Amino acid sequence: MKAYKLLSLVAILALTVASCKKDKEEIDTTYPTINIEAANAFPKQCSMVKRGEKFIFKADFSDNVELGAVSVDIHHNF
Length: 78
Known about the structure:
By secondary structure, this protein is α+β, with helices and mostly antiparallel strands. It has a domain at 31-70. Helix content is 22%, strand content 8%.
């Protein structure tokens, strides 16, 4: 009887451990989009911003899953 209880306990424990597999997370391969043609976007195409002048950058960012962070690099017109 003790052997039966021990075997049952080991079997239940083995099933519990084996059934707890973690699913692999899917990797997001779709790039986010930046829409600077929206109605409230700034600066528009060919807008002039003077050096040293403050302005607010407005654009619509979207992603199919989740957008974690945004980094914007501003370069001179070359």
